[in-house]
Hints:
The complex is a heterotrimer of chains A (293), B (206) and C (251). Chain A is built from 14 helices and ten strands. Chain A has 293 residues and is an alpha/beta fold. Chain A has a five-stranded mixed beta sheet with strand order 7-6-8-5-9. Chain A has a three-stranded antiparallel beta sheet with strand order 3-10-4. The longest helix of chain A is centred in the N-terminal third of the chain and has 20 residues. The radius of gyration of chain A is 21 Å and the shape is globular. Chain B is mainly α. Chain B has nine helices and no strands. Classes of the chains: A alpha/beta (293), B mainly alpha (206), C alpha/beta (251).
Amino acid sequence: MSLARSRAIALIAASPLLARCGSKNGSVRVGSKNFTESFVLAEIYAQALEAAGLRVDRRFNLGSTQIALAAMARGDIDLYPEYTGTALIDVLHLPPEQDPKAVYATVAREFARKYDLTWLRPSPMNDSQALATTKAIAARERIATLSDLAPKASALRLATIQEFLSRPDGLSVLQRVYGGFRFADVKTYDIALKYQALTSGKADVASAFTTDGAIATDELVVLRDDKGAWAPYNVAPVVRTATLKTYPSVARLLDAVSPRITDAAAQRMNAAVESGHRDPADVAAEFLAGKTG
Amino acid sequence: MSYFLDHPARVGSLTLAHVELVAVALIAACAIALPLGLLAARRPALSGWLLGALGALYTIPSLALLALLVEAAGLGPAPIVVALVLYAQFMLARNVVAGITGVDRAQVDAARGLGMSPSQILVRVEIPQALPVMIGGVRVAAIASIAIATLGGYVGAGGLGVLIFNGLTLHQPSMIVAGSLAASILAIVADGLLRLAERSARAALA
Amino acid sequence: MSETAIRFAGATVRYAGADRAAIDGVTFDVAAGETVVLLGPSGCGKSTLLRTVNRLVALDAGRVEFYGSDVATLDAVELRRHIGYAIQAVGLFAHMTVAQNVAVVPELLGWERDAVRTRVDELLELVRLDPVRYRNRRPRALSGGEAQRVGVARALAAKPRALLMDEPFGAVDALVRADLQRELLRIVRELKTTTLFVTHDVAEALRLADRIVVMRDGGIEQVAAPDDLLERPATAYVHDLLHAGDLPRRA
Lengths: 293, 206, 251
């Protein structure tokens, strides 16, 4: 094959990907953080858009909140699922509030003002942070609320993930609001392994999220946040305002889906992925088809 | 194994995306390595230095290089394609040099004496004769690129790495297996095809 | 008779790092249609001198003229397309067929497809290789003698005004060599091509040359026709050179 002809073929072959590399238009880039629920929600959003004929580029597994927001700022992704509580405390560094509507209003206003990001309609699902323990330990130590646990923590071992220790609305907010919470031992685990530590007796308390599939069992009990240290964590799609201008239908499409994501639906989907080992894409597809929640 | 069998369309489309990443990177890499290698072949003093520098580039851990490129180029295919192009240089340029310098000197002398211009000698005599060795370089670079491109799953570039990294995050070993298996099959196919190309280029010289 | 095809005037070439010049002030003429053989031991400068004609080697001093023009003023690539060049290693292009090899220079000169094809067959016949059997052969499939014949055909393809040959028959056995020498004589006489031929083989020189230039250490010992050289060697060196082995009588 002559040199000229091979060069021509190379250019033609390269053009589609180069075009995609260069332009930010042509597809909506949906991101997710690096845990199961984020994958499932992002898939729900992605598939809802694809069903309406939009081209979606999935950029999942983006690590922490910080990384996801940096990607939004740089324009590497157009939207991702974020929690109102996380945004309030972790990103805006404001004190926690209890009223879900107030929290949503605050974060929506501030994100629009500071970052040119729009919060779409929130879901009823409240994936709050929590501490869980086994029924046995709860009975033994007589703890049902976080106030009960605070002083007793010094005799107990905590299994958690790194983000819980470093985020301002993690362990530190409990210590501030309740006092105490100086655990005898703190070990970090991979996000999906920490419940195993609890159930296998390697730890006494585990940090949790209220929609985790694993805690919907008879063995574990979630301790009540009686002093309201944690804000509500309703999830909503956070979209670059610029993207909404290019794709105005995004708002309508996702707003149609969000109200259907309830606590129960979320928990069921998370369990399907975590213990059922199912593909988040399949679980999301079933949800959208009306087979879940 | 089950993911691979249950989601053939997904694995298929990710494989296609993976092929696209590697193909674009290899084409761009060849376009750079060919003139670079030719320059080095013409200037032996330069070639030692150049190949040394490219070799040093090759030893940079891919994740580290990728992280730096993401800082510069953001997420998506761009950082991984750039990383692949940089890594491939070493294997490609080295084989261009070996191929060109390995061409029979008598044929080059005859070509010159008969009245071919330097570029005609290059295109009509040197490159055709160096082709088997150069294709061998592409083959090695292709296999390495297929492997390294799996890191694309880490930076939102798509491709089979998505299965591997998602599988890691979601604790679904069968996803990881699916991604790795597909990548291995891709590498074997690429190796086979390029070996055929190498063989036919060699046959053209016989 | 007799235009000067090639003129060497004080041709000098110095390679970097050598104690003496490779060729030093060489002066002689080659008439059109003549076959001149440069004869001498290895290192005497004969190949270097040959290669100054088609500018594969650049002069450090002096001048080489090709049909009246100083070669330094001509475009080197264009010049070479009008001078045939055949070397000991032949250098047939391994990725091309015999026909494609022979067609190289005519194609470089932009000849018409049909003209090239005809010319290739003509030349293969000239060097006594049946075009039908040899046209599509690969160089790998040729014997030493066959390859050298193709080399000669390739050198003559574009009807060059002169033919430069650098020990072309040095790598084949004695029987094949004798055969090729006979063929070359016939071809050169038929085409009346000006030929400059380099060899270290005295017998070959005596057989092929109209005139022989005996070279030593970059300079000329003697220029004479073979008979004159044998009967009246100018120096003891020439005498010893000629008598250092069996001498065939010129036929």
